[in-house]
Structure formats: structure tokens, C-alpha cells
Amino acid sequence: MNPRFIQISELELLTPVSFNHALIVLANLDSDLARVLETLGTPPLWKREAGFPTLVQIILEQQVSLAAAKAVFNRLLEIVKPLTPENFLQFDDEQFRLIGFSRQKSLYCRGLANAIVSNQLDLTKLPTMDENAIRTQLKRIKGIGDWTVDIYLLMALQHRDAFPKGDLGLLIAAQQVKGLATRPTPVQLEAIAQNWRPWRAVAARILWHYYLNNHGKAVTVYQ
Questions:
Q1: Domain extents in the chain
Q2: What's the pTM value of the predicted model, to 2 decimals?
Q3: Is 48 exposed, middle or buried (0-12, 13-18, 19+ CB in 10 A)?
């Protein structure tokens, strides 16, 4: 069997039970994360439904506040009913501009929709593929890079070790939680996060939990 297309083990995915277990493991591994949990309590699991709408929403979240992206996404849901690739392609860029899409994001989402409609991308197969294969499949689409893939892996596919090292909210939170003199680079944050394997997706939720409680609505960054 091709190892790139094996069913992901249940043990590699987050469930409410494994999430709670991971919180205990991380608190024992890292006193800084333990302090966040003690102060703020358990973070949300933050799960999204896998599929085209979630990928569109993540693209909208690139380089803008979550609140701004959510407002545009909600307006999109009002005009494209239901939000499928086929229905999305029935609307033109001017209609999307009027609800808040940039020209670039219209291009990216249109490219994603076309790839699905033309069978170049089958999102239903992603849960049966390993992370590298998923990354390769999604990054073929213009406008989808590592950050977008990581967020999809973490929130939609619930991979337990997905880690969007280029996320601005995580970088800011890590600096403050760890008491660092300067904000870490994505490479430096990735090095810090090695200690959190194989539960980096849970560590990310703890850091976001801290960020949202101290800085309001998170700003995400596309790397």
C-alpha cells in the first residue's frame, strides 16, 4: 500500500479525550504552558468542518483580523447558498468585491473552486493521506501556502501535531509566555515547539488562548 495514502491513525487525531490528555502532558512538560492553563483554564478545541467553505474562510483570514475575515465570510454565506465550488463559480469578482473580497483573494478562492470542480483536487481524500501528501496537494493551488495548510490540518482535519509556526498570534504569545526579549522568528518558534511534540496543535491552542485573552481578536499572518 502506498504510505502516502494510508488511513491516519485515530491516535494521531485530536478527540476530546486525547485533547484533555495532551493538556496534562504539556503542563508537565512545560511550566510556562502550565501557568497559562492554571490562569486561563482549558482552551477551546476550535474545530471546523473539513471542506471547501473552511478553506475559503482560512484564505480570507490570511493577513487580516479574524473579526474582519469572519464578517466577509458571513456575507459570502448570505449570497452563495450553499457554499459549494460550483455555486461559488457562478459569481463574478465584482460581486465578491462588494462583500469585501480583495482581488487577490477572489483569485485564490476561484482557483481553489476550479481545482475541485475539475477534479484536480479531491478534498474528501485528504483525511486518508499523510501530512506531506496533503501539503503537496493543497499547495498546488495558488494562494495556499504552509500557514493555510497548517490551519486546515489543525482545525479541520484535527491533526494533533500540526503547527502553524508563521502565525503572528502564536509568535506574540510565545514571546510573552516564554519571557523572550524579542519576538521569535517562525524558525525559532518551531525549535521551541519541538519540546511539545507530538501535541503541538494543542500547544498552539494554549498559546492562542493566551493571545485572545490578552490581545483581543487575533491577527493571523500568511507565510
A1: 10-45+162-215, 52-156
A2: 0.90
A3: middle
